[in-house]
Amino acid sequence: MEIGIIGLPQSGRTIVFNALTEGGSSGRASSGTAAHIGTAVVPEPRLEVLAGIFHPGKVTYPSVTYIDIGASLKDMAQDKGIGGKLLNQLSQVDALINVVRAFKNDAVPHTEGSLDVERDITNMNLELIFSDLVILERRLSRLGESLKAARQAERAGILREQEAIGRIKADLEQDIPVREMNLTEEEKRMLSGYQLLSAKPLVIAVNIGEEQLPEADNLIQAWNSKFKGEKRAVTAICGELEMELTRLDGEAAEEFRSEYGLKESGSERIIRLSYDLLGLISFFTTGSDEVKAWSVKEDTEAMKAAGKIHTDLEKGFIRAEVISYDDFIKCGSMAEAKKQGLIRLEGKTYPVKDGDLITVLFNV
After folding, report:
1. Could you read off the pLDDT of 103-151 as tens digits, one per residue?
2. CATH of the domain at 323
3. Read out DSSP for 189-212?
4. Quick one: which of 174, 282, 299, 316 is 20 to 30 A from 247 by CA?
5. Tens digits of residue pLDDT in 235-261
């Protein structure tokens, strides 16, 4: 899973990136010629339990890659150079995090001269929409040129695409993001090739100060009542504090969080919310060599899930042996699960469920 991090200037975007990735980055500063890129492990407590039962040589957690984009989306949309490359990189991500400033810091004044979370959320929404409008206008221009030279058999398809883009463009001009539009399946397929930013699931991460932590839950509820929508939700993170806590060992960090009344880290909360918006679940492969968690879309068919493990497993898929996590834990071992008849044989179209333990039987 790849998530792009965006935010208006002075929002604390890069601090949040450092908190989420524990300071790890493989790219240069995003004000230069590359974005910051870092990874974080996806928490999965069930994997720890399974590792305690199987005692594998290796335990592998899912990971999320964060891409911190510092340039203005408006500038990127119009630029075919460095900005264009950054926009292309951002267009490939699975979801976006918009970091919005709520913390006070007189040494770093807000670019608008005042703090206003609702204004900044709206402004970034407009930047996403502007970026999409530029892409669609370019596409309409190319379609117009193609239509002039098109054969009769090609004209109908071009005209359909022009008409669909025209409708979507009209909604964007009314400040409606693509993710909230009522699109046909054909329009969704067509738009998937454009990778429009306002179509992507969006986590709005409000960057609060330490003094706001006691009221964080109430603030989140208020912001969600106004901005929660289709594939969009609001949470809060104290980026400065979370970045400091990454420098402590696990126990010390948990102790500090408990003093602030935080039940989980900001990274865990954002990953969980991202999974929910993307409709992702986890299934497990187990054995003495490795216990591993895999992330797939909810209701992914077993054969496709097998391909996530290895392409040979998808090509030669015969069937899958499946047991739910809860049933397995009650049994305590695969031998006991087989004895109780709890391991099911499922075919290629079986919709994988969250927590399934899967063994793929295949022949290549």
Report:
1. 999 898 898 889 999 999 999 999 999 999 999 999 999 998 888 888 8
2. 3.10.20.30
3. HHHHTTT-GGGS-EEEEEE--GGG
4. 282
5. 999 999 999 888 888 788 888 888 888
With a CB cutoff of 8 Å and minimum separation 6, the contacts of 102 are 115, 117, 206, 207, 208, 209, 212, 219, 236
Q: Considering Cα of 180, then 185, then 298, then 57, what sign does the dihedral take?
A: negative
Dist. CA 356–CA 327, nearest whole Å: 10
From CA 49, how far away is CA 288, in angstroms rounded? Answer: 14
β-strand 63-68 against 36-41: which pairing, if any?
A: antiparallel
Do 17 and 98 contact (CB within 8 A), yes or no? no
CATH assignment of the domain containing 178:
1.10.150.300
**7 and 104 share a domain?**
yes
Residue 76 confidence class, pLDDT cut points 50, 70, 90: low
37 and 92 housed in the same domain: yes
Single pTM value for the model: 0.86
Are both 194 and 215 inside the same structural domain? no
Range(s) of the domain holding residue 320: 299-362
Which of 198, 218, 252 delimits the end of a domain?
A: 198
Q: For the chain, how many helices (H) and strands (E)? A: 15, 12
Residue corresponding to tokens 């100060």: 209
